[in-house]
């Protein structure tokens, strides 16, 4: 794997090196010691090498600075598949034994959501650096406890919010923070699919184990699996944490053996009245997923890697003239269709954020940054806090839907971050 | 069946080219007028050339249609 050339990366993204960039993305500081860490190895244990865990392993296995030394799972097919990626890794069936292994520097936690808490707490206790897949934990309290444990541990803590490392998103947020697009008036996020999330199981008694995302005991469904990615874009772009959330969720289509919602809609409200919406329907995929950052001077859609200015140049004068003549001649005809030339403006097809198509979604860069951080033992800015609030907001949204009422972000879970001040009576 | 040779004289080609040039000139002047009227950028004199060329062929085709009608009227209506 080639070392990441920061200068080239910035050049390709057309960004300005400066304070704004440093403040918007943790990747820049994560790779600051990249040359000094050549030859060093981060020894990593993967707890929960299921489909997501193997996906993460596929990137780590290509990184010369990473050695996957241990695997832990209770499902043998996952172990067998993971061993194909890391054949020399030692296999465990109890994560506590893995944590006792002094040769392991860090752990990657990719288990079902409800298992994150105990594993992450024990991992910090054992002195390991932690990469935890999003969402961080199953409840607001657990998430808070993990964050506090991380603070006391002096270890590195990454959350799988890969958009923080995605060149499209870094570029988009850079543009927003530069003021080029004016002020943010609203954020619309949506993630639509047309499938039930159910995976085939070899025997019925394994259903809850494999399809854990569909069961309330293990997951909060759409909110913890999808929304937490997109809500993080809102806090990153606005540099604010929303104070209130209301929403509604229901099971409207995939009704068989499903406990979590397949149809949700949430509204998060910021201090200044700006709102961030999150919608997800799992029985229609036409609009797919996107985060639309609506600003006074333009709109950014980072997933499509595009931006659109509100003011667009008018059509060439010659076409305007033709259009007027045409309207004067045929405009009054009731059956006349739309003009064959633009009326007063060009169609707003927007512009691309990057000069070249980005490779991947930031997951590879995120894992490389984690390896760098493990080696240097330096925590990059934002990633733990952005991950923390992404999880808390998704959990709060889920709670608002369950209780069918508007919820205010609880003071006791606030950190000293952005517009929040930590509760003085907590740690 | 024998094919009939059609001979287009140099004079005829010259006449058609001048007609085409005249159509282009009309389009060009219309473009300049539109730029002034709509207060657009002067660079559109160049950047709108493709539209002017399309306009030129449309005008030329319309002029050709008029001449065809005139020829039909003279050849089949008035002569008979």
Structural summary, described in words:
The complex is a heterodimer of chains A (427) and B (80). With 427 residues, chain A is α/β, with parallel strands linked by helices. Helices cover 36% and strands 18% of the residues of chain A. Chain A has 14 helices and 15 strands. Chain A has a nine-stranded mixed sheet, covered by helices on one side. Chain A has a six-stranded parallel sheet with strand order 3-2-1-4-5-6, with helices on both faces. In chain A, helix 4 runs parallel beside helix 5 (76-85) and helix 11 crosses helix 14 (383-403). With 80 residues, chain B is mainly alpha-helical. Chain B is elongated. The model of chain B has no long low-confidence stretch (mean pLDDT 92). The chains are: A alpha/beta (427), B mainly alpha (80). At the A-B interface, helix 12 of A face helix 1 and helix 3 of B.
Could you tell me the number of beta strands of chain B? Answer: 0
Shape of chain B: elongated
Strand content of chain B: under 5%
CATH class of the domain at 6-164 and 361-379 in chain A: Alpha Beta
Spatial gap, N to C terminus of chain A? 41 Å
Structural class of chain A: alpha/beta
Give the C-alpha Rg of chain B: 18 Å
> Would you identify the CATH H-level superfamily of the domain at 6-164 and 361-379 in chain A?
NAD(P)-binding Rossmann-like Domain
**SSE order of chain A:** HHHEHEHEHEHEHEHEHHEEEEEEHEHHE
Main attributes of the structure:
heterodimer; A: 427 residues; six-stranded parallel beta sheet; 15 strands; B: 80 residues; mainly alpha; 78% helix
């Amino acid at each position: 794997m080639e070392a990441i050339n920061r200068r080239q990366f910035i050049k390709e993204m057309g960004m300005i090196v400066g304070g704004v960039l440093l403040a918007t993305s943790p990747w820049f500081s994560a790779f600051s010691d990249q040359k000094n860490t050549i030859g060093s190895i981060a020894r990593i244990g993967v707890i929960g090498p299921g489909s997501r865990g193997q996906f993460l392993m596929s990137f780590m296995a290509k990184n010369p600075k990473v050695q996957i030394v241990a695997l832990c799972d209770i499902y043998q097919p996952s172990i067998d598949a993971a061993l194909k990626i890391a054949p020399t890794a030692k296999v465990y069936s109890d994560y506590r034994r893995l944590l006792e292994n002094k040769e392991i520097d860090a752990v990657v936690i990719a288990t079902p959501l409800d298992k994150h808490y105990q594993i992450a707490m024990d991992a910090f206790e054992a002195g390991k650096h932690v990469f935890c897949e999003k969402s961080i934990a199953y409840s607001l309290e657990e998430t808070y406890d993990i964050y506090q444990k991380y603070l006391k541990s002096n270890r590195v803590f990454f959350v799988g919010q890969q958009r923080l490392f995605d060149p499209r998103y870094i570029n988009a947020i850079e543009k927003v923070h530069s003021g080029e697009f004016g002020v943010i008036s609203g954020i619309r996020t949506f993630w639509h699919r047309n499938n039930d999330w159910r995976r085939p199981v070899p025997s019925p008694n394994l259903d809850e184990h494999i399809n854990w995302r569909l069961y309330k005991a293990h997951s909060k469904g759409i909110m913890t699996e999808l929304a937490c990615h997109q809500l993080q874009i809102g806090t990153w772009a606005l540099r604010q944490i929303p104070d209130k959330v209301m929403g509604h969720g229901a099971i409207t289509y995939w009704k068989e053996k499903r406990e979590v919602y397949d149809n949700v809609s949430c509204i998060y409200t910021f201090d200044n009245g700006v709102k961030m919406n999150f919608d997800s329907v799992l029985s229609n995929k036409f609009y797919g997923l996107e985060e639309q950052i609506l600003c006074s001077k333009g709109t950014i859609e980072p997933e499509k890697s595009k931006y659109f200015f509100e003011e667009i140049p008018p059509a060439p004068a010659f076409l305007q003239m033709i259009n007027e003549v045409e309207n004067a001649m045929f405009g009054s005809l009731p059956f006349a269709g739309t003009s064959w030339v633009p009326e007063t403006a060009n169609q707003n097809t927007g512009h691309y954020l990057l000069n070249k198509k980005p490779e991947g979604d930031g997951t590879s860069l995120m894992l490389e940054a984690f390896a760098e951080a493990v080696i240097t033992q330096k925590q990059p800015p934002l990633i733990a806090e952005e991950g923390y609030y992404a999880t808390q907001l998704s959990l709060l949204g889920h709670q608002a839907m369950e209780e069918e009422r508007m919820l205010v972000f609880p003071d006791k879970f606030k950190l000293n971050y952005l517009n929040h001040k930590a509760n003085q009576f907590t740690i | 069946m024998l094919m009939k040779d059609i001979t287009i004289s140099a004079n005829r080609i010259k006449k058609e080219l001048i007609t085409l040039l005249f159509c282009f000139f009309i389009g060009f002047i219309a473009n300049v007028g539109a730029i002034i009227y709509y207060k657009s950028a002067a660079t559109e004199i160049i950047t709108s050339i493709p539209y002017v060329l399309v306009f030129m062929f449309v005008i030329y085709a319309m002029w050709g249609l008029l001449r065809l009608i005139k020829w039909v009227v003279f050849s089949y209506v008035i002569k008979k």
